Amino acid sequence: MLASKLYAPTLREVPSDADVVSQQLMLRAGFMRKVANGLYSFLPLGWRSIKKIEAIIREEMDRSGAQEVMMPILQPADIWKESGRWNAYGAEMMRINDRHDVEYCLGPTHEEMITTLVKNEINSYRQLPVNLYQIQSKFRDERRPRYGLMRSREFIMKDGYSFDIDDAAADVSYKTMYDAYSRIFTRCGLTFRPVEADSGAIGGSNTHEFMAIAEAGEADIIHCSACDYAANIEIGKPGIMKQVEEDLKELEVVDTPQASTIEAVAEMLNLPLEKTIKAVVYAIEDKVILAMVRGDHDVNEVAVQHAVNGSVEPEMATPEQLEKVGLTAGFISPVGLKQTDDFAIVVDESVMETYNVCGGANKADAHYININPKRDFNTEDIIVAPIRLITKDDVCPECHSPLEYSKGIEVGQVFKLGTKYSESLQATYLDQNGRPNAMVMGCYGIGVSRTLAAAIEQYHDENGIIWPRAIAPFEVVIVPINAKDEALMSTSTTIYDTLLNDKVDVLLDDRKDRAGVKFKDADLIGYPLRITVSKNTLESNEVEIRIRKTGEAINCPIGEVSGKVQELLSQL
């Protein structure tokens, strides 16, 4: 490829609306362009890297025995209603009606579609196991699309689905995909960690997220300093923190004018946060959920959802919802409250082990002091569950060693779905005795475009991207110092042709721009190797090969360039 023919408009300034490094650099380096919030067009450089990631995925999927299919993006509402997810999926689903007023959605995922496909073709245990996958665009109506490709409304995803005769066979498929994913992200050059995770709207039992470790990550990961335990903080298992037992004091109301946050109350009453309890109020569908944790802890929304068997993710309750169930924002506690059909109270286990703490008095500008939950809460009207986020003061739930924290970008996830979809959609097979059984399913997803962004978040410097060799748009760029010099261009073209013949993915920067511009673009775009052809090349018969990752420059005889390039690439 010649740079003069390449459509790669670079930018010198950082776009004002670009939030994270990967978004900034992909716009500046000419990999993509923004169409609207959460929507991007890939330009040739970005698309080349996407296709390389897809090629790695296909190779490893095919190696594992999975087979590629392609299903419609547009999905009929009927199959989602049959599975029970049409209403449960929530506002992220993009729904449309055709000219006949028939309901459809733009696929956020394909569990219903693949199950419907397979159930119509498979009827015997002899046809199982089956593992099918596809790579295509998915659509989710993100409330706040941001961070470029890491949270967008349209994104490229590999999704795969396995069908087995029983749990034991499904475990084998799960392990096969887990291992394949580990190979994929290793080949893509990512630093990653598989962690235990929540299955979310997909459902199922066992699940692991593959997290690319990066400060820009939206997920908090905990991992043990001594053993292999690692988990998304949302499912980290916090222990019960007990306070030193005290004599129970008499419940008392104190004035706390305009102190509507637990921090403000603690400061006003000169209390440590652990001697307070705080309320966070959510809505799940039409039900209001009061969640209570210690003042020094944070609520785990996933745990709250599980505690009340919610079918959708919790959202913050509106003032109207608070008023409907008689709650006063900023001054809430379970004291004197009872559950109803549209109101539930969930209290963290550690709250129940507190003594003489402070919490809302359920009226404006007032708090209780000396709350003793076991005495003062209507224990028959509350749900006690571990709903706090794990903290640095907790220990590993497996070996009790100290925990460490990282930020991660979710690039893949594997699920053991069980029979959730096969039962609701009647995907059955006949066993050896002729009896029908529900197929046991697994689900496996990779965010292809997210993987691209994650690689940039992990590998960049102040000058631009530092691509892992396997997913770089080009492995090598040849930069003649002066493209108007026929001798330099002749030498550059000879090297270019040699590398092409030796199957090296190479770009010749034949533009008439100054050398400094070409060097800046090479660093910005992040080609793993840069070969500089200068006047010194003609005199010494050597070129300079610069390694983008380390900055190391190596002089190499022209006749040995191909061998040296391949040697250096094999080390990247």
Automatic annotation (TrEMBL):
Compartment annotation: Cytoplasm
InterPro entries xrefs: aa-tRNA-synt_IIb, aa-tRNA-synth_II, aa-tRNA-synth_II/BPL/LPL, Anticodon-bd, Anticodon-bd_dom_sf, Pro-tRNA-ligase_IIa, Pro-tRNA-synth_IIa_bac-type, Pro-tRNA-Synthase_IIa_type1
GO biological process, one term: prolyl-tRNA aminoacylation
Domain of life: Bacteria
Enzyme class: ligase
PROSITE patterns, sorted: AA_TRNA_LIGASE_II
Aminoacyl-transfer RNA synthetases class-II family profile domain location: 33-468
Keyword S-adenosyl-L-methionine listed: no
Keywords: Aminoacyl-tRNA synthetase, ATP-binding, Cytoplasm, Ligase, Nucleotide-binding, Protein biosynthesis
EC number: 6.1.1.15
Record's catalysed reaction(s): tRNA(Pro) + L-proline + ATP = L-prolyl-tRNA(Pro) + AMP + diphosphate
GO molecular function, one term: aminoacyl-tRNA deacylase activity
GO cellular component assignments: cytosol
Self-association state and partner proteins as the record states: Homodimer.
Comment block on domains: Consists of three domains: the N-terminal catalytic domain, the editing domain and the C-terminal anticodon-binding domain.
UniProt xrefs under HAMAP family: Pro_tRNA_synth_type1
UniProt xrefs under PANTHER family: MITOCHONDRIAL RIBOSOME PROTEIN L39/PROLYL-TRNA LIGASE FAMILY MEMBER, PROLINE--TRNA LIGASE
Free-text function comment from the UniProt entry: Catalyzes the attachment of proline to tRNA(Pro) in a two-step reaction: proline is first activated by ATP to form Pro-AMP and then transferred to the acceptor end of tRNA(Pro). As ProRS can inadvertently accommodate and process non-cognate amino acids such as alanine and cysteine, to avoid such errors it has two additional distinct editing activities against alanine. One activity is designated as 'pretransfer' editing and involves the tRNA(Pro)-independent hydrolysis of activated Ala-AMP.
Family membership noted in the UniProt record: Belongs to the class-II aminoacyl-tRNA synthetase family. ProS type 1 subfamily.
Protein name per the record: Proline--tRNA ligase
Gene: proS
